[in-house]
Every structure is written in structure tokens, then in C-alpha cells.
Design goal:
Blueprint (H helix, E strand, L loop, with lengths): L10 H8 L13 H22 L13 E5 L7 H6 L3 E6 L2 H13 L5 E4 L2 H5 L5 E7 L8 H11 E12 L3 H14 L16 H10 L3 E11 L3 E5 L5 E7 L2
Parallel strand pairs: 1-2, 1-4, 2-3, 4-5
Antiparallel strand pairs: 5-8, 6-7, 6-8
């Protein structure tokens, strides 16, 4: 497929994560860590969208009437919460295997989600735009970053909200994510990360600004004994950035 030959897509990365497709929805499988942080991600996206679009946080579907795109959706762990919150949701991924599993899972759950095996560049070329874009644990796997961020910005509607998360490039992130989670505990598939490809908050902010977006918030993701995963000022391991388009 031509749209899967875009500059931002690494064939090796797509093959690696496509090979995990059948296990993606297993909460004790290779994506166990993502299952644990999805509720926190969902709350962060919900709260940011409620504030941005002046919605009722107590509503069962606070995103109703809004369009949402999940870039690098995998098998839909974040796309489904967007749909359940009322958004008209689209998910794209470079691995067709992930899209097949995502579509089957959504259908089984009675969710109407537009899943596509395509790239951000190819989707942006169609002229479609979205009110909300999520891009979670994706940019560290992107090949051509300039092309990717330009496409992401083009896909975001005026007044829209983008939420991104990614590991920081620090000794702490290597120790936690690679040395600990990949090598020791095996809670993340071995080889899932290349520490050299991690972006610092400053680097990611600069890339988003260069693409024409305005960074509005930064929050760190940490794990604390007795509390589990929490948001706060510590960005040394992993962090979220929110950005908007004028």
C-alpha cells in the first residue's frame, strides 16, 4: 500500500508491533503496561478536551459531536475510550495486523470506529481534519519526524486539541523502561524501545511549534508505591504534552 511507504513510517517498527497484534487486548500480555495506564490517559484526554471545548465533565459522553483521531492506534486501546466518550473516532496505524484486530474488537463491543491501515501523511493529503488528535507512545517509533509532525498539524482542525505522550531521553527512562520493564520484568516486549529515539520535552515542544502548534501543558507520568501511575511535574521517565492550533 502506497500510504504505508510514507517518510514517517519505519517498516521494521510496523513489523515488530504488527507481530504483537493478537496479544494486544490481553491485559496480562505484551501490552499489560498500556492497559494499566489507559484509564489515566483517558482521564487526561477527557479533562483537556472538556476544558478546551467547554464541555460538561460529568457527562457520560463529553466528546459527543467532536471528531477524534488516534495516530498509531495499535489495536485501539485509546481509540475505544474516545468513541465511548462520544467522539466520532478514527484510528490509524502502520501495521495492518493491528488494524484488523482493532476493527474486530470494536465490532464485538458495538463501537463504530473508522480504522485504517495508513500513515499520517496519507490521511492529511485527503484534507480531513479532526477536533482532537491523540498520539500516545508513538513519536519514539517515527522515522521521518519533520514529515510526521507536519502531517499531524495539518490533520488538526483550527481550535483543535492534540495530546501526545512519549518517553523522555534520560538515564531514568533507560533504567525504568529498558533496563527494568524490558530486560528484567518483561512487562514491555524486549526490543520495543530505542533509547536514542526518545525525545525530551524541549525537543518535542520545539517540533510541535515548528509545525505550527502551540504547546499548552506538560505533565509527567510516574509510578509511586501505593498509588500506581500518577500525573505530576516529574517528566524524567515519561510525559504528556498538549497542544492546540489557532
Amino acid at each position: 500500500m502506497a500510504e504505508l511507504l510514507s517518510p514517517s513510517i519505519s517498516p521494521d517498527e510496523a513489523t515488530f508491533f504488527g507481530g504483537l497484534a493478537e496479544d494486544w487486548w490481553n491485559p496480562r500480555g505484551s501490552s499489560a503496561m498500556l492497559h494499566r495506564i489507559t484509564p489515566l490517559r483517558s482521564r487526561l484526554v477527557r479533562d483537556a478536551a472538556v476544558a478546551r471545548f467547554r464541555r460538561d465533565v460529568k457527562s457520560r459522553q463529553p466528546l459527543k459531536g467532536l471528531t477524534a483521531l488516534d495516530i498509531g492506534c495499535g489495536a485501539g486501546l485509546m481509540t475505544e475510550p474516545l468513541a465511548r466518550m462520544g467522539a466520532t473516532a478514527t484510528g490509524i496505524d502502520a501495521a495492518p495486523e493491528n488494524i484488523a484486530v482493532a476493527a474486530a474488537h470494536a465490532t464485538a463491543g458495538g463501537l463504530d470506529i473508522d480504522y485504517r491501515a495508513t500513515s499520517a501523511e496519507a490521511l492529511a493529503a485527503t484534507g480531513v481534519r479532526f477536533d482532537i488528535i491523540t498520539c500516545l507512545e508513538v513519536v519514539e517509533h517515527v522515522a521521518g519526524r519533520d514529515s510526521f509532525f507536519a502531517a499531524l498539524a495539518a490533520l488538526l482542525a483550527p481550535g483543535g486539541l492534540a495530546v501526545l505522550s512519549t518517553p523522555n531521553r534520560t538515564p531514568a527512562s533507560w533504567a525504568v523502561l529498558i533496563g527494568g520493564a524490558e530486560m528484567l520484568l518483561r512487562t514491555i516486549p524486549r526490543g520495543a524501545h530505542d533509547w536514542q529515539r526518545f525525545m525530551t520535552p524541549e525537543e518535542l515542544s520545539e517540533a510541535l511549534v515548528h509545525a505550527g502548534l502551540t504547546v499548552t501543558d506538560r505533565q509527567g507520568l510516574t509510578w509511586r508505591p501505593g498509588q500506581g501511575f500518577t500525573l505530576g511535574p516529574d517528566v524524567s521517565v515519561n510525559y504528556f504534552l498538549t497542544a492546540t492550533r489557532a
